[in-house]
Amino acid sequence: MADGGKQQEPEQSGRVHQGRDAVFIGGEWRPAVGAERVDVLDPATEQVIGHVPAAGAQDVDAAVRAAREALPAWSATAPGRRAAVLAAARDLMAARRADIAATVAGELGAPLPFATAVHTDMPTAVMGTFADLAAEHPFEETVGTSRVFQEPVGVVGAITPWNYPLHQIVAKVAPALAAGCTVVLKPAEDTPLVAQLFAGILAEAGLPAGVFNLVTGFGPVAGQALVEHPGVDMVSFTGSTAVGRAIGAAAGGAVKRVALELGGKSANVILPGADLARAVNVGVANVFANSGQTCSAWTRMLVDAERYEEAVELAAAAAAKYRPGERLGPVVNAKQRERVRGYIRKGVEEGARIVAGGPEAPEALPTGYYVQGTVLADVAPESTVAQEEIFGPVLALIRYQDEEDALRIANGTVYGLAGAVWGPDDETAVAFARRMDTGQVDINGGRFNVRAPFGGYKQSGVGRELGAHGLAEYLQTKSLQF
Ligand code: NAI
Ligand code: MG
């Protein structure tokens, strides 16, 4: 029961990386200065599965120095050489697919099929796109009488969260390296094991010493030291809006470049004339994937009054198929579980109707940080559960009267990361999507594109990740006039 649905498929024989008691600085694994460690838990079993160092400011300082020392040579390498290293890293990620998937399944609690198809194959594909972009990108152009060069920003401090642990690392490190930057990574304390695997892969791919450095540890210690270090030219952060706001302020004070990928409360707008059953089923799957721990999840489903009750029934039926411990994995830790359950109770207090799931622990699952897949109906657009990021398998169904009402509700939060529009045809859906204050919208079930720019309007963030737009974040321009 407590295996979290992680039944081994025959072809999967991956081993969970148990962590090494070392940080990766200047091309070598070395002990951290202090003796403190981070215990890594499997959220499905609540058992400790590994340890990594809880690094401190001295370790961060050593890592930043190593990155600065490596910068002149790496930034001067030909883009084709950088492309070759990234391509080698992509191939090694593909070769280690089973180990990466097993490690993310262990430390995040993701069911193995999802850990393989999404947490492993997506970052491998993203690595491939930056290998291509490094080779293709025009790092030099002519503008009238000037030659304009795109040059690396410098030393990048990358701070990543636990929800898509390897994807979020690759979405920062790969473009930074493609641009010619050097990097110090501070991964999330809940999921540092796959970060260590990744450090080994980059070294094996032939990345020179000091170009990539890994410092594991806690946010307010190692993370903060990295943000504040004067040797860091740019901070790229993904995580909570609260921490992102503080990082943005610190970076602004030091006039460092900053990229922030923060929270979301994205709207899934189902217009009259859309295929309701498909829109609702895809919408529920979108929210429950990764146990609801997705910044771009469509956590608000907007349905017209006429078809609202039908949508509620469809959503409840779809949600019932997500059995905790099978298709629905646990959330990452006990704190997140309590937070998510608290939001469900808050929704009920505010007048929402539970039509699937609820705040109680799932039956017959005494172990593991599980939350029932929950659908809240009759959610008021201004209520807490319609405004705040819950980060668990909780869908809010909201009724709208007409298209203008739907647009007002869709745009009525502080966030603007993603969204979906379903219409009778693409043209109708596109016209609505163009009026949404958000960075990415899927039209009639359009699929995630690893080369499309990803990032937020409003308080969902600053800057873009992925593809050519993601690469541009790590470049600055120099003009020479003739
Ligand atoms: P968090 O924002 O505290 O953690 C993200 C990263 O920031 C981690 O690596 C952490 O160590 C680091 N960090 C924390 N405090 C820091 C500081 N003072 N200076 C520098 N780095 C620091 O997120 P947390 O507490 O794990 O999750 C809380 C909520 O945040 C979630 O419920 C969710 O709503 C949101 N979140 C959003 C994510 C997204 O993808 N946009 C990802 C993770 C969390
Ligand atoms: Mg936190």
Condensed summary:
Helices cover 39% and strands 19% of the residues.
Q: Report Rg.
A: 22 Å
The first-level CATH class of the largest domain is given as: Alpha Beta
Number of domains: 2
Structural class: alpha/beta
CATH architecture of the largest domain: 3-Layer(aba) Sandwich
Provide mean pLDDT, rounded: 96
How widely separated are the two ends?
71 Å
| Major sheet strand order | 14-15-16-13-12-17-18
Biggest sheet details: 7 strands, mixed
Number of continuous helical runs? 16
The CATH topology of the largest domain comes to Aldehyde Dehydrogenase, Chain A, domain 1
Bound molecules: 1,4-dihydronicotinamide adenine dinucleotide, magnesium ion
The share of residues in helices is: 25-40%
Unreliable stretches (pLDDT < 50, length at least 5) are 1-11
CATH superfamily of the largest domain: Aldehyde Dehydrogenase, Chain A, domain 1
Number of strands: 20
Q: Give the overall shape, derived from the CA principal axes.
A: globular
